[in-house]
Amino acid sequence: MRSAGNKMNPVTPYNNTESKKEQVAQMFDNIAFRYDFLNSLLSLGIHKGWRKKCIKLISDKQPKTILDVATGTGDFAIAAMKLNPDKIVGVDISEGMMKFGREKLQKLQLEKIITLQYGDAETCDLPENSMDAITVGFGVRNFENLEKGLTNMLRILKPGGQLCVLEFSSPRQFPVKQFYKFHFKYITPTLGKLFSKDSRAYTYLPESIKAFPDNERFTSILDKVGYTKSSFRSVGFGLAAIYLAEK
Ligand SMILES: C[S@@+](CC[C@H](N)C(=O)[O-])C[C@H]1O[C@@H](n2cnc3c(N)ncnc32)[C@H](O)[C@@H]1O
């Protein structure tokens, strides 16, 4: 069985020779021009509501400094504007994705508050105890070393600060499980290949979801690396989950 945590044989986008990180950055650079469009098409827009729910869940503590890891085209960072923060920093390893994100920020005139910069979740050297909240949308599944990424984010969080992770999970219940299997076997790869021109990106997606340690398995990793109060709630009938934890 392939596992996201198995360094000998991780699920990677293209091959077993380059690192997962290089391949993930390459894949997102390739599909960046269609990422937002395909996200909305394949999910029928549901992902927007999930990000909104995340933002609502971290609103109690009124975070003023927010780090959006694996920011991509910046949708989570833009959704976090609802919290009326002083500053949002988005980091990502795909310059291609952030190029489209920066264009959106310019159109929305949000560049004074949101900045997108190159940064790897596992190694970025943002100051210790510097962020009130960290968000990660559909990013952790793609990390090369999940625990290293989570540990570095814990370092950056202020004591009492919150981590909010939104990630796909494998649905377990009839008929969502059956619909999901059909969608990922036939619809996702066909539309993904047609519109993004990267035939592998949208077969990597279900494989990486299958290999991802979701639900309780993810909260036990959060506990293991040192977070407190870790919890999760399923959204979209088990298609995704929102994980919350504190430093
Ligand atoms: C599916 S996109 C999600 C984008 C955005 N967060 C959203 O909600 O739409 C995943 C992003 O994770 C980024 N990524 C993967 N591994 C990363 C890492 N180690 N550090 C930072 N970003 C990473 C990819 O480059 C890609 O832009």
Protein described:
There is one protein chain. This protein has helices spanning 20-43, 46-57, 75-79, 95-108, 146-156, 176-196, 201-211, 216-225, and strands spanning 65-69, 87-92, 114-118, 131-137, 157-168, 228-235, 240-246. With 247 residues, it is an alpha/beta fold. It has a domain at 26-62 and 125-246: Rossmann fold (3-Layer(aba) Sandwich), CATH 3.40.50. It has a seven-stranded mixed beta sheet, with helices on both faces. Helix 1 (20-43) crosses helix 6 and helix 6 packs antiparallel against helix 7. The radius of gyration is 17 Å and the shape is globular. The two termini are 33 Å apart. The model is unreliable at 1-7 (pLDDT under 50).
Uncertain ranges: 1-7
Strand portion:
15-25%
User: Could you state the order of secondary-structure elements as H and E?
Assistant: HHEHEHEEHEHHHEE
- In CATH, what is the class of the domain at 26-62 and 125-246? Alpha Beta
**Helix residue percentage:** 40-55%
Give the SSE map.
Elements: H1 20-43, H2 46-57, E1 65-69, H3 75-79, E2 87-92, H4 95-108, E3 114-118, E4 131-137, H5 146-156, E5 157-168, H6 176-196, H7 201-211, H8 216-225, E6 228-235, E7 240-246
Helix pairs in contact: 1-4, 1-6, 6-7
The structure holds S-adenosylmethionine (SAM).
Question: What are the main properties of this structure?
Answer:
single chain; 247 residues; alpha/beta; Rossmann fold; 7-stranded mixed β-sheet; 8 helices; 44% helix; globular; binds S-adenosylmethionine
